Hints:
By secondary structure, the protein is of the alpha/beta class. It has six helices and nine strands. The longest helix is centred in the last third of the chain and has 31 residues, at 197-227.
Amino acid sequence: MRVLSVTHGPSVPGGVFDEAVEAAGHVLERWQVPAGGMPDPATSYDAVMVFGGSQHPDQDERFEWLAREEEFLRDVLAAEVPVFGVCLGAQMLARAADGTVGRASAPEIGWLDISVTPAGAADPVLGVLQPTATVFQWHHYAFGVPAGGDELARSAICPQAFRLAQRAWGIQFHAEVTQAMVAAWVEEDPDDLPMPAADLRAESEARMNRSNKQGRALAEAFLGVAASR
């Protein structure tokens, strides 16, 4: 398959999701949106993955490229190309589907538990997770489940995963994250942390192997659905 990885800066790559694409022998292409340009038309791709970033989905005055990304994601949805969004990517996917995005009631940063809903347990992608999963979070904004969508997971703060029409998935948590990515984010924004940076790095080292297995399982499940389309 031809798979597009959409990112929002050099420190927020596709992590283990990109690794899963390449390990499966698919063609991986990348579009770093702030760098400019546009990818090929949405119909050129067999699957699209959209990842995180420090930007917020309502900061169009600061980041004019958000509108360009929304336009592309609207095309992806209209063409029924399988798409998977992570954190900012999920928020932008919800925005493209005319869902609500905005500041969460509280930030979630660090290793936190989410609960998979009954719809999530039955889902071909999110169903690979345990009923309660410990995941890495770093966000101040959240999405509402778009109209016609299903909530697949949630935390005490906000929805954590949704599905639209068996072809679009969004997750709020960072299933793609690697230890190198956590280290880069801590260095870039240490004042955002609710705990000492050393504590987060240590906990991340202890939890990363299991997190990466979860992330690869999600990526492989998504790619499997896309391949069967």
